[in-house]
């Protein structure tokens, strides 16, 4: 009956449907005195926005934010920051024929079963459009993190269908990620991915992939075991993004190929600081950040909306076939990079702020 | 500063250290009128308990529960159920030499950095021993679920190191899982796994693996989007278990091998009920259960404690080498099966109860 | 760092400053299928709005709501209902001279000390203007309650300064309350109160008073002991309203005048139903509603903004004297009636929905 | 379905029934490195324990705590502190005749209606015995507060029936409060109260009263508006104590006797620090502590259990008369002083820790 809030003391509540009046969020827990740059927020949103390249849906929305509270003279006041984004380019009429259908791979049936009613236009609340609010909130989180600790969060496309890069996460920069339409920092692989997606698009089909995310220079001590482990909440945050099917950290599922003697990261001293010789753990042990780079990956399924004809049923149980014209993404990954970063920033900000409490008591 | 509670309205709070006075939990949110069977709880705990076979640590603890509140004449009263398990077989002296060390792969350094102090004995709060409380709480959740909906939750070992089974999850029964020491329902594969682990044990090393979990006949409608998606909270719950490194649902990371047209589950009508021809999604779409079987997998790293000599540092930064005699598991997976089931039961119970609210308003 | 949300599963998050871009709220937890009437919400807001009579501030704001999400074709969808109210009639220039002052009785100094910065215009976040969002959210709660149980919530002015009514709460109707500008259902007393307030207004001073609230025909079973007692959360909700200084239920502070034998409500059977001969308890025992009418009272202090000259200090510690021209209420009580009702509706809705869970398990 | 936890990041969960196996609590959120003194906790509990004077019930329980986790070598580790108190002196047989009755003024009927079943022995979960856990948790909170800020929290009996003291709260010390059996720091008034209670006890009746609580030297900035105002959560905490019927802060309900010009606390500078000339507000404005002493009062009803014969009904609706022999308090106030202090300490500790977050970001 609720479920639209993430975070414990840095709380983000989102609202809005794909084709409703507007979408937005309330960020409750931003410390006071932080300079909030609307241009930066808009820029982050533009990385997620549709229509940015021919790899994405041609639905064009500027997604500029309106900050309605919590910021005075450009500085946060410690009160909730409410953000709204208008739904400017809705073509709900496109969805009229889908009103009583359950699109395969979509949440139409889930919502219909749970709520008994739904706003079917553009997928309503289950639409990935709602992640624009997350990117806006994530931009606030990034602003806080960059002020207080100098975090650098970089996500990028690691795999698309059968193409992947093995680039060293620590070598990845924002410039490399933004240098191409697919947001893969390995340029040769990026070209292959782009070609593949263009071909998939022509086939009226879609593909999924894997996004990798690296946080360099994280502070030690984030995470509140035993249930609020940092990696546990990163997992939750990532699985709450539309179309995700898996999360892994450090070695992830490949950890089973290693024996204990191979997987244990050996502690040592480097330049007077504790470090580990390897980083199989991905920067988190026992649910608490160790100070080593945090590295995780997220699996995305192929976009369920495709141009090919598919069978399905309507609400009365009649068999019917549908094909979706036009506006959809053959691959969501280039746009999802900004969402993964935003979600990571929200979780890290929450746990960083929580961990500052200990300083108040020492 | 907190973090020891999981669940929204079916809330489980655990407490206790490996070698402290005792461990336990408070289950707040069990409906009244549920028959609570102490034998069933103890039996569940025995599946996780050490010393059950030569594949596990010889540390022997009976792990019988003491129910301290919330149950009167064998029936829940709707008030918190407090459960305690004594720490009967602690040999803290074994850990004296580890007091100032950071064991590789363990949370010693994380806890030391975050808290400035720690109970080092047996790993203290970061020890997997604390999951005994989770199994006890999970037994209460299972009791509720079995009464109100007839859930069946089965977890089992799917992979160990380089050995794996492709058994059909829907064919797995509790008897098959419990028929062998490794808890793999595929008997031929189970034998191979057991041989492997015995060999690893002789090498004084350890291995990890993958546990698969299937929930047959789940109710439709569990999950509260957009952040409290059922799969998101299953992911969080699984990543909060000690030694886990990944979570995936349905096709999981292999989803990238499929195109949209292949991965979309086609809705159809079977025996008058809505179903899907395939179940690539793993029973959850848009964060809400669809009524199809819920199937997910969890990756476990090899036990960090090994008999082989390893290098590390102490709190003063001195290099030192350690080797751990005796009591540890060469592979945690057979014992972790009960933990995965318990965690799944807790999450499902929470979301099932939450979803009943809608019935009160229709 | 947060604190702008009330409710457990019927969650209301408010945002906005008195003279900011706008104010509003997100209602997360409204069940699906509820008809949402914008006119009703606007009408509730108009009861709180300024400028409704010469007893209130002449600041004139229409306070009409814009529903941005969660409602489709006039019916709730189970997703968050976001509501916005524009700040149409702000005269921030009136506050320029107050920018660096701490107004006596106001939260200027509190906010300055806590946050280091603040939006001083119109009191910013600490302004009672923010309660317009609560009234809007309360209107949604009232709609739910009226659909599912037939609640009737009536608040009214019981005392102003030295004038009070002893009207029987059970005899009070909405019409009686709305029949006069002070919202006292006892017409003779109402006239006295109005005269008093007009005189106080001429004196450029202000007065406080007591609002009483009665809920007839409440369901049995609301409240989750031991901490989430229904009366405990009503107390919290009322004390979170601006300018309140006390809460009491049933006999309240006068309970000390009774002995146990006098105060105990004797159970009996009336028309085949359990009832009590008296209702000293005010409808809640042990934190759970008994089915008897819920009756509580809230004390409001005199409006801190007055026209008379007052001494204070500025942020640099200089003594200074201020007098506030124009737009303020000599007595907030007639407008606060709608706020008390709204807050009560939010709490009751939350606990009513929570209590429906038990029905799902019987 | 839950409701047994109080606090946001300093979280206290209590469990246990009056005549069950035992009672206790889990304190999750105690910072690491705090010296925990079991004797101090026991001493606090003894102030609430029965049998301490002839003004209280002769039921004798030592109420010594067993700390089961979270403390190692006498120092908190940052993990949950679980505390248990045995129910040593239960005479459940005394309650056999009450099993199917609804005692007037007690929660028997409320619990029966809500849960359908209950542990009737000694009032079960609704018994004030469960507050022993709160006092133990409060002792931990007091320990933290005394280490980090030097708080002094003093509660005392201000009124009993028709007898009251007007002692200046700022003059009250712990010694004065503990100098007599009724815990009223005004010795002459204390004697009158004691005489009254002895007379009431002979009449087999009971009386209520008012406890006042003062916190001297509180830090500025505690409280998270708009809903988590410090006074709002103090109100909730106090109303969650058994037998309370009202809460007021500063002038409280008497604030209506003052005009705005009289009630506003004038800011001024004293010894270089901001202060107010008066403290009508009771130390909290806008929900945030101002640094002035926090002063509030709580109304307690007369103990519902009395020796006089009373009418009531049983679960089948039959009229029946009961009289309770022996073990009950003619006046709960002397024992409740420790509970009020403990609850205040828990709330203050929670908000103090929350407010330290801002320091981590400046």
Report the principal-axis shape of chain A: globular
What is the top-level CATH class of chain A?
Alpha Beta
As laid out across the biggest beta sheet of chain A, the strand order is: 1-2-3-7-4
CA(first)-CA(last) distance of chain A: 40 Å
Instruction: Enumerate the spans of chain A where pLDDT stays under 50 for 5 or more consecutive residues.
Output: none
Q: What structural category characterises the helix and strand content of chain A?
A: alpha+beta
Mean pLDDT of chain A: 94
Descriptive keywords:
homotetramer, 362 residues, alpha+beta, Chorismate synthase, AroC fold, 5-stranded antiparallel sheet, 8 helices, 27% helix, globular
Description:
4 copies of one chain form a homotetramer. Chain A is an alpha+beta fold and 362 residues long. In chain A, 27% of the residues lie in helices and 22% in strands. In chain A, the strands form 6 sheets. Chain A has a 5-stranded antiparallel beta sheet, covered by helices on one side. In chain A, strands 9-8-10-16-11 form a 5-stranded antiparallel beta sheet. In chain A, strand 1 and strand 2 (11-16) form a beta hairpin. Chain A is globular, with a radius of gyration of 21 Å. The model of chain A has no long low-confidence stretch (mean pLDDT 94). The B-C interface holds B 8-9, 31-34, 78, 144, 147-148, 353-362 and C 8-9, 31-34, 78, 144, 147-148, 353-362.
